[in-house]
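W.,

You were right to be curious about this one. When I first looked at the sequence I had no strong expectations either way, so I just let the prediction run and decided to look at it fresh. Below is the sequence, 149 residues in total, followed by the output.
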Amino acid sequence: MSGPAGFGTGPRSSWERGLDEGEGAGRRGDADGGQALLEALEPVAEALGASLVTAAELDAADIPLRWRGRLVGGLRVPQLHGALTRLIEQVERELGGKLPDLSREDKQRAVHLLDDRGAFLLRRAVEDVADALGVSRITVYNYLNAIRS
């Protein structure tokens, strides 16, 4: 994902291409165009596993983003399908390694982070997290009991 100068290394997002092409709020660099808003929200979108879209690409499920009363784009949040995988990937990035390779202490911390983020509200989450950690369901339940007591 690309962004403001010095941030991101991936391909340009659709909202950046749209600003270049004059979609949405106006030309790139236009103070009223909302580019600053979109650039500021890019790390938030990335952390949520969401994406920024131009005003022209906005769908009914997207969150509209307005700058000075003008629609400049939207935030497209990911569907619930795949949410646990995205949460696990976030925790792996945060802890600096794949879950099965972590120490026992870091696995407990991973379960704590996943619990804080609501991962265990999802159906079959305990089983899926146990598989991702390389431990049994009982171990995950023990970690959860230790956290919650």
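Here's what jumped out at me. The helical segments are 14-20, 35-48, 83-95, 104-116, 125-133, 137-148. And, maybe more interesting for your project: The two ends are 40 Å apart (CA to CA).

Coffee later to discuss?

I.
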